[in-house]
Amino acid sequence: MSKKNAFYAQSGGVTAVINASACGVIETARKHKDKIGKVYAGRNGIIGALTEDLIDTNKESKSAIAALRHTPSGAFGSCRFKLKSLEDNQREYERLIEVFKAHNIGYFFYNGGGDSADTCLKVSQIGEKMGYPITAVHVPKTVDNDLPITDNCPGFGSVAKYIAVSTMEASFDVASMCATSTKVFVLEVMGRHAGWIAAAGAMASTDDHEIPIVVLFPEVEFDQKKFLASVDEKVKKFGYCSVVVSEGVHWPDGRFLAETGLKDAFGHSQLGGAAPVVANMIQDGLGYKYHWGVADYMQRAARHIASKSDVDQAYATGKAAVEFALKGHNSVMPAIKRTSNKPYRWKIEMAPLSKVANVEKMMPKNFISKDGFGITKKCREYLAPLMKGEDYPPYKNGLPKYVTLKKVAVPKKLDSFEI
Amino acid sequence: MSKKNAFYAQSGGVTAVINASACGVIETARKHKDKIGKVYAGRNGIIGALTEDLIDTNKESKSAIAALRHTPSGAFGSCRFKLKSLEDNQREYERLIEVFKAHNIGYFFYNGGGDSADTCLKVSQIGEKMGYPITAVHVPKTVDNDLPITDNCPGFGSVAKYIAVSTMEASFDVASMCATSTKVFVLEVMGRHAGWIAAAGAMASTDDHEIPIVVLFPEVEFDQKKFLASVDEKVKKFGYCSVVVSEGVHWPDGRFLAETGLKDAFGHSQLGGAAPVVANMIQDGLGYKYHWGVADYMQRAARHIASKSDVDQAYATGKAAVEFALKGHNSVMPAIKRTSNKPYRWKIEMAPLSKVANVEKMMPKNFISKDGFGITKKCREYLAPLMKGEDYPPYKNGLPKYVTLKKVAVPKKLDSFEI
């Protein structure tokens, strides 16, 4: 049995383009049938591996797999489930290897963010230790854009485009209404610790059409007085103002503006509701009529306005992951390297997982303007190419034609396993 | 001075396609230079007429006017300002006629909803009375889709498309996450009294891909127990559920779920925040993890995903308004008449303003499903064509290329006027 099967799983919050990476993995594996047998996908991510709930992607047609490229969300299901450390839970890692062994799986492609990179690294290490070597390659994905080494993360460019477009459109709207009605529009965006997505909101203001935008970054301690003064100055000058507030914005004592007290499976605080908090401040402090929106899942699922750069890179990293594995590289991740800004050019390089796992890339200090409420030219130059190009999905009866897979289960061979 | 100028103004909340109507009015007027002189636009709507703050649209290039077709918001500025009744405020109506007289304006094109139709009708009546006849034609516009006689209202189809696409995309997202994380997504949409926009959310579920969606209509008294039971049933069956809640949903005693206590210039209650109220109910009553979004201005400004039917109709009503006026019709409105559903065909007819003003069209009872949480086949057949077709704006550097007009002021001839 020299020809091994592959396992692919989606992890954590899904994006508009994570399925494009899945498409890259599966299409590339199908081109190398001499070396890779079947691609099994984990139903609901790594949980599918632990419970031996595998999906046989060979049962999906060529056109269905191709359609993953334009379908948002995680087609095989994702999960928020972090494997504990090897010391604390060797049982789960051993189970993974047991399942891989039972299904002749020699390749492990894990599509996620920083936590998943760590899991990917550990799977490779435990396989080695248990005498069942696994070629583990991480496929980067996160709207938070916080993975190190790679210039940017697949998933982010499309959120950035969605937020920039939405901020532009809503700002045009407020500008039309501000003489007698709404003067401030507040948009809440994702980003717990890094302000990459919030920064994208500032891209709505261009040389062709200046828009007054105040950005609230999680990297900058919230200063209510300075903030209100900045909004007031813009309303007095332009007649209106837009505010883009990251869900992760916090007070000097560390409390989030939107704190709810809940935590998710990774131990992260559950956030939501910074926009109404900020909007009420504006009403109370300045008396301006406001409107507020919360982009929530819409921003990361908005495949209809995905960035072409992002779709291309998501596909390319999936493809490269398989190619790296076939060349015998282990515990690595395809990283995006920007080789030129104008015109935008990029290539895929290889990053060792040991340098990726558990490292969070913040916004560089010189990307945030001195007053803390905007972005610098450097940031603009970084963000612009990532939002470049449109890549519309096909439509049917006015709605995007997203694919739904059959998701046929692979027959189980092992006893059940309690997570 | 047989050749009269025209006055055009945008009223109330703007939309993704109100500028397409402006484009229709101006381009059509420019084709009839023998009969219509200049088109003056009111800066910030009717306030521009009262304050004699007119914009000379002749100063805008052909390409700038053409670009209005793909630019959201109100390019000339809109306003929330309702003229009082003739008895209560004859002074304002007389001022309008005075301004029209001073600038040789014989045509009044007013682009708005029900309140504006009423103003349009009164302007025509007072002109007659004051011996300065004005040909007043109303151009329909409202995302609320609540004008009578016309099959649908320009502005609505694009919001419907945006909400259906967003609900579909966010639902795909939740479906991927529901095994271990979010099980319910709540999206708040506009619609104070009529549930047209909320109904569009249900269109996200198609024959190709069923999505469990619970819709909360303003037409249906909110029943918390029944609502939670419906959500629970869907989560148990599908693993997840999406909720589309109209801002106008209210308790049996009439209080809005999202009541804030504020009122706008038209005396309408200012709403916001139904989504978090509903999400908290789900958390408390069912214990499911939720996410919520508020589409707010994004939904009505989303020109990037406008419906082609809607753009075409917005333009056609603007064009027809000028043609009606040139034929000598007064106090009328171009109405959309659906002549066939499959294939979708429509034409423009003429509706008398006396039958349009101050009449609010609600959702027909047979459009809402028996349980009160969904839409019927009849509703589906009505909505589908309105969302049909894509009409993408041009892009530059990853962002839509929306036009900003010069908005050159017409020199004033009269004394100033206090509103």
Write a short abstract of this structure:
The structure is a homodimer of 419-residue chains. Chain A is α/β, with parallel strands linked by helices and 419 residues long.
Order of helices and strands of chain A: EHEHEHHEHEHEHEHEHEHHEEHEE
Count of helical stretches of chain A:
12
Q: How helical, in percent, are the residues of chain A?
A: 25-40%
- Mean pLDDT score of chain A, rounded? 94
Oligomer: homodimer
CATH class of the largest domain in chain A: Alpha Beta
Rounded to an integer in angstroms, the radius of gyration calculated over CA atoms of chain A is 22 Å
Q: In total, how many beta strands of chain A?
A: 13
Q: How much β-strand is present in the residues of chain A?
A: 15-25%
**Which fold name corresponds to the CATH topology of the largest domain in chain A?**
Rossmann fold
Largest interface: A-B, 77 and 77 residues
* Largest sheet geometry of chain A: 5 strands, mixed
Number of separate domains of chain A: 2
